[in-house]
Amino acid sequence: MTEPLLAHATERGRMYSRSTSEPPLVPSITTVISQAQSSSLDGWFGYMAASALAQDPRLPSSLGNASEMRAVIQDASKAAERYREDAARRGTRVHYYCEQIALRDLGREHQAEQARTDLVQHGEEGFAARFDEWWDLYQVQPIEPEITVWNSELGYAGTLDLVATIGGRLCILDFKTRATDRDGMVKPLDEKVVMQLVAGMKAQESLVDPVSGTWEPWQHGADPVLLGVAVGQTEVRALRANPEVLKHHWYKFCALRRIWEAGGEVANAGRPLLVVPPPPRTQEAQPGAGHAASAAPAQGG
User: Fold this and answer.
1) DSSP labels for 119-141?
2) Which parts of this chain are annotated as the region Disordered (predicted)?
3) Are the C-beta atoms of residues 160 and 151 closer than 8 Å to each other?
4) What burial class does residue 5 get, using C-beta atoms within 10 Å of its C-beta: 0-12 exposed, 13-18 middle, 19+ buried?
5) Which residues pair with 27 in a beta bridge?
6) DSSP, res 240
7) Are 168 and 176 in contact (CB under 8 A)?
8) In angstroms, what CA-CA distances link 42 with 47, 77, 193, 244?
9) Using CA atoms, how far apart are residues 171 and 120, in angstroms rounded to an integer?
10) Mean pLDDT of successive 10-residue segments in the chain (301 residues)?
11) Greatest distance between any 2 Cα atoms in the chain
12) At what angle do helices 112-121 and 125-137 cross, to 10 degrees?
């Protein structure tokens, strides 16, 4: 997604402020959801490093050179990080294009052509072409792209990719840039997108002016269709969040919000572990105390 004006990178994750002149106050929707990350990525990191090492053209010549081998290994160890950074930049470019198409159809100032050119220059024109096809096929009528929302009751904020009408129904959409599998199909969405969408639906306010900090009551939370949209080079696939499970994903989101808060409380509570010194020795417990007492001469008759 593009970078919202009120979003800030902090030690506690991405957070939002109420205006451009105020400090960040609440976590973002994605920061809250990230508290659920539990699966280990050790295997993936190892695979990416091994794959990068095997494909490095310097590998044969470095086998007899220790310093060169260290450089090759160091570069390979950063392969996963580079992959994620590249994916994040690609996602930003694709999201920006989607936003510009919505602005174009709303008759607002836009940079749709420049955004498409940027994708072409990075070899990513397929994302734009497939998105255009999907946009026309679904007859998307945009209402507001990249709209920042706030929930004061629970304490979080976020920026929704798009509010639109499709087939006469109000929809909240979240675009996810996805790779293509071996069969030429866009890879499936992570189910956490449901939490992201329901948190957006449960907002209480939406941003009017970020500079002055003007907000208005959220107007699009009354029974919208929640759509996760996987945007790929070969196809775009829209998936609806099952209305029957929304309350459970909302409960989980609320629990994760509490976990985020507890993390801050723990961090500020003080030192978690304290050194314990050995207890002082009593007279009876001192080495040799019993032997000295038995060796003392008897007193009296």
Assistant:
1) HHHTT-HHHHHHHHHHHHHTT-E
2) 1-23, 278-301
3) no
4) middle
5) 15
6) E
7) no
8) 9, 12, 23, 35
9) 29
10) 82 96 97 80 70 80 82 76 83 97 98 97 97 98 98 98 98 96 94 97 97 97 96 97 98 98 94 94 68 52 46
11) 118
12) 140
Q: pTM for this one?
A: 0.82
Where does residue 58 rank: exposed (0-12), middle (13-18), buried (19+ CB within 10 A)?
A: middle
Question: How many angstroms separate the CA atoms of 263 and 231, rounded?
Answer: 34
At residue 67, what is the residue type? Answer: S
Q: Identify residue 287 by its one-letter amino acid code.
A: P
The Cβ-side half-sphere exposure at 284, using a 13 Å CA radius, reads: 0
Nearest to 117 by CA among 128, 106, 109: 128
Q: How far apart (Å, rounded) are the C-alpha atoms in residues 195 and 261?
A: 18
The amino acid occupying position 187 is: K
**What is the spatial distance between Cα 243 and Cα 278, in angstroms, rounded to a whole number?**
60
Q: Residue 301: what pLDDT?
A: 46
Domains and CATH numbers, the chain: 7-37+47-264 (3.90.320)
Alpha-carbon separation of residue 40 from 36, 49, 220, 283 (angstroms): 12, 16, 37, 54
Cβ–Cβ < 8 Å for 180, 232: yes
> How many angstroms separate the CA atoms of 116 and 98, rounded?
10
Amino acid letter for position 259? I
- Exposed / middle / buried, residue 142 (Cβ in 10 Å: 0-12, 13-18, 19+): buried
